[in-house]
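Hi V.,

Quick status before I head out on leave. The structure for the redesign project is tokenized and pasted below; the design run finished overnight.
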């Protein structure tokens, strides 16, 4: 017979058993929660594409882990109470339902070029997180974790509409500031030095991408989280966030000016020229770190007083038994299995059946009149191919670029708006009647640009297999209403022919002749190219 264990050992084992049970229960809940993310895999897939392909939205990758850590922090402050409610189960089911419906019908509010989704991609993620907290922790923890859960709504940290309303104007302003400062210090960008300042010769691009929005968004989120952790008053919190965003833009202008100084200093030194990208990183990181330290110092000023009077929260002491928790886990598993059994979303089918970029570039015409196709390439946005391009050449002619906008959801694209991001305003922007390869004429947008180094002309057309027209920005701005999109019909062409945006661009070195002469030469060359191009047939190829 074994000897009886001492009383103190028996008490110790009794004390440890609840902790072991809680640990096993916590691991089971965590694994099941992670498995439940399969019910919102569509949103996770789209968000991952945003984070890994768009530098502006890459900060969103940090938001889910920060949200989870802050939610666990709020849960710990309540003593890890397990006062879950069965109401969390229908909330989780609602998240799965939103994930399916969001891709079947997309509801937008439209005002001009800006469109706002009423069911954003992050909404099912937020609803799912709220449902899990309600199901296992309870309403008290859900209310206390309002901010961490609310962060899940910001998984896409910068809305799409910011590109036209904020990003493009800021890129234009940043490029102008950089050019003006360069002129002020005698490094005028109206000379061939422009090719060095505003081209990747130094391993980076000072414009148009340096609009400061990434730094401003990052500082804004840092201030947002710090204000929550330090529990600053709401008005002060809002002021911190607004100040962080404005400081990010201010620091970007300072960074651009310092970078221009570096460019001038580095000219003629191959070693310094090769370090331009790292110099840009060093300047930006130093400014960003300084701003972060400033906001931490401001937020900590009130922390000690508020910590002294803060009450200590404890759990309510009631927790469901093992059987009740097992039933809730089983319920969550059944809802997940039901969601996975539903048909896959339209966007998943579209990605599985979408034509490859190489195949799409094969649709570019091999010849346009006397011009012959020499090379093709494509451009992507958020991991999706949005534009196909081809370069054409003919004896005695400059290279001509033909671009076709192939974004699956948004057909209209104004090529002239893209040039605003370079800090360039058109010297001439007009409408011209041009005769296409089919013998019919159509009014097309024609923009002429001259920055002192390069003269460029842009011809912009909106074509269907039946007709062509010009892009009318003034009419678009007056548009206000609602838009319902069915991606599965639009992507597969089931909704009939849709408009296709077509761009023709010609660049040549700036000549000493007057701009009117240069514009006339480029315009004649563009007319010659359009005269051999059947715009409606090209639109038919990209339906």
């Amino acid at each position: 017979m074994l000897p009886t264990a001492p009383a103190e050992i028996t008490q110790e084992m009794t004390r440890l058993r609840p902790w072991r049970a809680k640990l096993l229960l916590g691991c089971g809940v965590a694994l099941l929660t992670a498995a439940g993310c399969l019910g919102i895999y569509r949103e996770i897939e789209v968000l991952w594409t945003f984070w890994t392909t768009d530098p502006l939205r890459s900060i969103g990758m940090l938001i889910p882990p920060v949200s989870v850590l802050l939610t666990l922090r709020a849960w710990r402050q309540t003593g890890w109470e397990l006062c879950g409610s069965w109401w969390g189960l229908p909330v989780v089911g609602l998240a799965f339902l939103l994930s399916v419906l969001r891709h079947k019908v997309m509801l937008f509010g439209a005002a001009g070029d800006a469109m706002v989704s009423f069911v954003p991609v992050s909404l099912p993620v937020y609803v799912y997180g709220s449902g899990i907290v309600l199901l296992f922790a309870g309403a008290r923890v859900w209310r206390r974790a309002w901010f961490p859960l609310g962060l899940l709504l910001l998984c896409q940290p910068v809305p799409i509409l910011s590109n036209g309303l904020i990003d493009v104007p800021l890129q234009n302003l940043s490029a102008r500031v950089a050019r003006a400062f360069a002129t002020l210090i005698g490094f005028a960008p109206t000379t061939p030095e422009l090719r060095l300042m505003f081209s990747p010769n130094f391993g980076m691009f000072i414009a148009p991408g340096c609009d400061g929005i990434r730094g401003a968004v990052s500082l804004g989120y840092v201030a947002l989280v710090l204000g929550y952790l330090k529990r600053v008053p709401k008005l002060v919190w809002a002021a911190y966030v607004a100040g962080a965003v404005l400081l990010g833009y201010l620091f970007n202008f300072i960074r651009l000016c310092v970078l221009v100084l570096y460019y001038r200093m580095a000219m003629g030194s191959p070693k310094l020229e090769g370090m331009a990208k790292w110099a840009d990183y060093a300047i930006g990181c130093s400014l960003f770190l300084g701003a972060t330290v400033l906001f931490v110092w401001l937020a900590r000023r009130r922390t000690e007083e508020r910590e002294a009077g803060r009450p200590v929260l404890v759990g309510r002491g009631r927790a469901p038994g093992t059987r009740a928790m097992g039933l809730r886990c089983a319920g969550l598993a059944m809802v997940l299995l039901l969601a996975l059994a539903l048909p896959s979303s339209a966007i998943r089918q579209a990605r599985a059946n979408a034509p490859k970029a190489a195949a799409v570039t094969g649709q570019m015409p091999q010849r346009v009149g006397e011009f012959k196709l020499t090379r093709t390439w494509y451009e992507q946005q958020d991991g999706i191919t949005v534009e196909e391009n081809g370069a054409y050449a003919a004896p005695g002619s400059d290279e001509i670029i033909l671009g076709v906008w192939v974004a699956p959801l948004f057909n209209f694209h104004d090529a002239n708006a893209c040039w605003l991001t370079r800090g360039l305003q058109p010297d001439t922007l007009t409408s011209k009647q041009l005769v296409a390869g089919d013998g019919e004429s159509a009014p097309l947008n024609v923009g002429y640009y001259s920055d002192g180094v390069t003269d460029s002309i842009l011809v912009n057309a909106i074509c269907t297999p039946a007709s062509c027209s010009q892009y009318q920005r003034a009419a678009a701005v007056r548009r206000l209403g609602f838009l319902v999109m069915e991606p599965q019909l639009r992507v597969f062409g089931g909704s009939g022919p849709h408009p296709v945006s077509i761009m023709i661009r010609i660049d040549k070195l700036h000549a000493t002749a007057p701009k009117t002469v240069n514009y006339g030469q480029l315009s004649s060359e563009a007319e010659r190219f359009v005269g051999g191009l059947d715009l409606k047939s090209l639109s038919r190829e990209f339906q």
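Above is the designed sequence. Residues 16-159+319-349 form one domain.

G. will cover questions while I'm gone.

Best,
W.
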